[in-house]
Amino acid sequence: MILTIDVGNTTTAFGVFEGNVLTNTFRISTLNRTDDEVTVLLYDLFKINGLSFSIEGAIISSVVPYLTQKIISAIEKIFRVKTKEVGAGLKTGVKILYDNPKEVGADRIVNALAAYEKCLSAVIVVDFGTATTFDCVSAKCEYLGGVIAPGVNISMECLAQHTAKLPKISLERPLQVIGKNTQESMRSGIYFGYISMVGGIIERLKFEMQKSTVVFTGGDAQMFIKEIKEVDYFEPNLTLYGLKSIYYKNV
User: Fold this and answer.
1) End-of-domain residue from the set 24, 54, 85
2) Domain count within the chain
């Protein structure tokens, strides 16, 4: 049994694997907690769900440096195992063709590997998180690069924060494109504008890459998946599967 951890800007996901089977997942808010708080929280998640504390090992990918070491320390205290961290020195099986490979977020490489192993072909990964990222992988499992755009929630917050009269809104699917009041107009702009942005970028990427499969993941993907015709697969736990694969590549 191994523990996989994906630390994102908004949420942190934990996955427990028995061999290749993902048996349990937990998601918590990514907050600047103390070392003790992280330890207690992780211990309670295992205790409440009746999970064994005898794990083989753990692996983490993180885009939040201040939290990474706290989680690694908590794992060592609770489970008495070392944690592998995705980064320099860890084999991923992905050749990175970015100008500066160190600039690529660990989660993007993990997603690239997981999507490639799922499709065994050229693939475009769209991750709907705090930022919406598009990652392009060749048929030879080469990370070609991608696109980074604001996530839908950041877009809504920015609109409310940087205008004098526009309110904060919740995101729901509008009944029609033409809004009859300010909130409806904002929802329409965010919702349909976001769909057009994602669909348009995918169309351009597929033109540059020729044949490719499109995989969606991330917290906000389900809200838009029925509206964007270009998607082939949806896997909410894509990063956790990628982490599991990298763990076993480095045993």
Assistant:
1) 85
2) 2
CA max distance for the chain: 59
DSSP of 105-143: -HHHHHHHHHHHHHHSS-EEEEEESSEEEEEEE-TTSEE
Residue 25's contacts (CB-CB under 8 Å, 6 or more residues apart) are: 13, 14, 15, 16, 237, 240
Whole-angstrom Cα distance, residue 242 to residue 40?
A: 26
In DSSP notation, 18-36 reads: ETTEEEEEEEEE-----HH
Paired sense of beta strands 57-62 and 2-7, if any: parallel
The H or E element containing residue 153 is: helix 152-161
What b-and-e string marks burial along 82-93, b requiring 16 or more CB atoms within 10 Å of the CB? Answer: ebbbbeeebebe
With 0-12 / 13-18 / 19 or more C-beta atoms within 10 angstroms meaning exposed / middle / buried, residue 53 is exposed
Among all chains, which residue has been given the structure tokens 């999507």? 115
Shared-domain flag, residues 137 and 233? yes
Computed from CA positions of residues 155, 132, 129, 35, in that sequence, does the dihedral angle turn out positive or negative?
negative
**Positions marked active-site:** 107
CB atoms within 10 A of CB 114: 25
For 107-132, what is each residue's pLDDT tens digit? 999 999 999 999 999 999 999 988 99
133-149 residue pLDDT tens: 999 999 999 999 999 99
